[in-house]
Design a protein that fits this description.
The protein has two helices and seven strands. The protein is mostly beta strands. The strands form two sheets. Strands 1-2-7-6 form a four-stranded antiparallel sheet, with no helix packed on it. This is Molecular chaperone IbpA.
């Protein structure tokens, strides 16, 4: 049960809905979060990350990666095995799973690779030129343009 009500935050702010949504989602998802399959998130550069998910027993055809509304969803569905097996110990879980990762603004998936039982998903932040900081030149008020022609009133 959550003890926080974020409704006053929605009323008192304009444009910070994403922050409130993020806090609300974090508080809601932490309860009973499934830990299968295990994953790592590593920072590979200033604006690049890699998510590595342990997917032993899954082939490329069993895995799906989808990005929708700034949410990365990784699902794994193992095809039914037709051969009858008698396990003495079964420690490799190949049950179906779904992992979701919320992506920040301007973060996009640049690639994915499946090797040695690990699914690697590469992410990069690509900020548009219009949103990047830019330096504004400051001119003094005393300088005038040499090509400026004075306008005179005709009346």
């Amino acid at each position: 049960m959550r003890a926080f009500d974020l409704t006053p935050l929605y009323r008192a702010t304009v444009g910070f809905d994403q922050v409130a949504d993020l806090m609300d989602r974090a508080l809601a998802n932490d309860v009973g979060q499934n830990s299968y399959p295990p994953y790592n998130i590593e920072k590979t550069d200033d604006d690049a990350w890699r998510i590595s998910i342990a997917v032993a027993g899954f082939s490329d055809d069993d895995l799906a990666i989808e990005v929708k509304d700034r949410s990365l969803q990784v699902t794994g569905r193992k095809a039914a095995d037709e051969t009858e097996r008698n396990y003495l110990h079964r420690g490799i879980a190949t049950r179906a799973f779904e992992r979701r990762f919320h992506l920040a603004d301007h973060v996009r998936v640049t690639g994915a690779a499946h090797e040695n039982g690990m699914l690697h998903i590469d992410l990069a932040r690509e900020v548009p030129e219009a949103l990047k900081p830019r330096r504004i030149e400051i001119t003094s008020a005393g300088k005038t343009d040499a090509n400026l022609v004075e306008a005179k009133s005709v009346n």
